[in-house]
Amino acid sequence: MNKLQLHGFNNLTKSLSFNIYDICYAPAEQQQAYIEYIDEAYNADKLTQILKDVAEIIGATILNIAHQDYDPQGASVTMLISEGNVELPSSMHSQSPGPLPDTILAHLDKSHITVHTYPESHPDNGISTFRADIDVSTCGRISPLKALNYLIHSFESDVVIMDYKVRGFTRDISGKKHYIDHNITSIQNYIAKDTQESYQMIDVNVYQENIFHTKMMLKETELENYLFEKESNLSDEQKTGIQKKLQKEVTEIFYGHNYRRKKIDVAD
């Protein structure tokens, strides 16, 4: 897409909502230890560093950071950012994955990044789910999609749900309104190939409204990767039952529906 010659500032707002779910099996006697582990692994300080890395990737200047750990669990971080004095590279609007945080790429203006975490557990079947919600909202020339590749690599995720929306308009020097300033056909184009190969992915896009939605569900579900205590002495029957519970949890989150036992049989 050729560069637009704008009348004044680029007023487009671009928002990326990024939700990850990490599933674990931790029976009642292990659930408190699991919550404590998650709270330590993804406390406010750790989340703040992730958001600082995002700001570095997109070349933003951090204006203010507010962070808070919660009792009994969870944490939140909000970061206000402004544009940096960095030239916009020619690849910024290409539909390709962004890098990990080792280069400054672009600039933001009047923008913010937030993250909130939600650890929780099923009351009786041993399934625990950690959810992190991250929102990157930018006002200006670039899209926050270039931070997506790094964000996916920052969390161990069984399910990832992403929404991208461009709002408002900006005018060119002739007065014509432009409702989007870059090409995009799918959020998947901004995700690295090795990640795409590891996940089942579906899109629900509304092109005329500049709304893009992608879901990802991990293909391989080795039981050992889901046990909070790796050395658990489980019978084959117990392992089969746990595997079914995990599959049910991941599938329900991915599709956004609760399934009855007759559809997915889960051993007690």
TrEMBL record:
Q: What InterPro entries would the database entry show?
A: AdoMetDC_fam_prok (IPR003826), S-AdoMet_deCO2ase_bac (IPR009165), S-AdoMet_deCO2ase_core (IPR016067)
The yes or no answer to whether the keyword Ribonucleoprotein is present is: no
Q: How is it modified after translation?
A: Is synthesized initially as an inactive proenzyme. Formation of the active enzyme involves a self-maturation process in which the active site pyruvoyl group is generated from an internal serine residue via an autocatalytic post-translational modification. Two non-identical subunits are generated from the proenzyme in this reaction, and the pyruvate is formed at the N-terminus of the alpha chain, which is derived from the carboxyl end of the proenzyme.
Q: Subunit structure, per the record?
A: Heterooctamer of four alpha and four beta chains arranged as a tetramer of alpha/beta heterodimers.
NCBIfam families assigned to the protein according to its UniProt record, in alphabetical order: SAM_DCase_Eco
Q: Which GO biological-process labels does this protein carry?
A: spermidine biosynthetic process
Involved pathway(s): Amine and polyamine biosynthesis; S-adenosylmethioninamine biosynthesis; S-adenosylmethioninamine from S-adenosyl-L-methionine: step 1/1
Q: What keywords are assigned to this protein?
A: Autocatalytic cleavage, Decarboxylase, Lyase, Polyamine biosynthesis, Pyruvate, S-adenosyl-L-methionine, Schiff base, Spermidine biosynthesis, Zymogen
Pfam families on file? AdoMet_dc (PF02675)
Q: Which reaction does it catalyse?
A: S-adenosyl-L-methionine + H(+) = S-adenosyl 3-(methylsulfanyl)propylamine + CO2
Known role: Catalyzes the decarboxylation of S-adenosylmethionine to S-adenosylmethioninamine (dcAdoMet), the propylamine donor required for the synthesis of the polyamines spermine and spermidine from the diamine putrescine.
This enzyme's EC code(s): 4.1.1.50
Any GO MF annotation of the entry: adenosylmethionine decarboxylase activity
Q: Which cofactor does it need?
A: pyruvate
Its name, as the record gives it, is: S-adenosylmethionine decarboxylase proenzyme
* Family, per entry: Belongs to the prokaryotic AdoMetDC family. Type 2 subfamily.
PTM Pyruvic acid (Ser): at which residues? 111
